[in-house]
Structures are given as structure tokens and as C-alpha cells.
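Quick sanity check, MaoC family dehydratase:
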Amino acid sequence: MEMPNGAALPRELVAVSLVAGPHEVARYAELTADFNPIHLDPAFAAGTTFGRPIIHGTLGLNLVIEAIERTFGGLPDDVSVEVRFVKPVPVGSAIRAGGYLRSLEAGTYEIYVETASGERAVEGTCTIGRAPEHRNKGANAT
């Protein structure tokens, strides 16, 4: 999806929520062929640092991509995403993804995935549209 130069950017990304229960995590494992027992096997996960199964980090990241798609009606052609996975999320948690416009000039959003209690699991930035060095700088552009 091509974004027109000078198109207004919304102040927030549409928030997207999901309860990441065992069924959703198992379906995501099938989709990605990631069957790591830390996500799927409660007995295995009980013996790890986490003490119980955790969702795939990329499952949350995909929720961010869905928030971008819902906001712009598709995934913009020139979108870049940089994230950090900052906290594991136990299977069964409700998570929400979204973002806030941080810089209109750069087209940069602060993006996140958080639990129902507001704890951040994934955070980072995404830039919508062409890289700032390629954007139209207005009538005074050279």
C-alpha cells in the first residue's frame, strides 16, 4: 500500500487485543512451525525460569502489524519496525498492541504490546512512509 506524500498520519494506531490462550498459542506454533516446549508444554515450562508457558514473542509482534494494517487499511509499502522484547507474557494473558505518533515529520510511532495490567512486553518504533531523507520537504525543497 503506497502512502501519498504529505498524507496526514493519525495520532494513534488502532489498538488490537487478543487473549493468548493455549489454543491460540498452539495454532500460532502450527503456523510458524515453532514448537518450542516453553510455549506449549506446561510440565517443561514449569522447570524453566518462567515457571509456566509463555507466548511466542512474535505473536505479540504480529499484533502490532495488525494494528498498523487496521490503521492504514493495509500495510504501507515503506514501513520499518524496530522492537525489543522486554518481558515474557504467560500463556492465557490478554495482550493489546498499538502505538502513538512520536514524530509527524519522521512518520515515527512509538509501538507497544502490553498486558492487561499495562506491563510492556514489546516496545519500539515504526516509521510509516518513505525514509525522512526521501520525503517531500514542501515547497522550499531543493
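Posting the structure with no commentary besides this: The radius of gyration is 18 Å.
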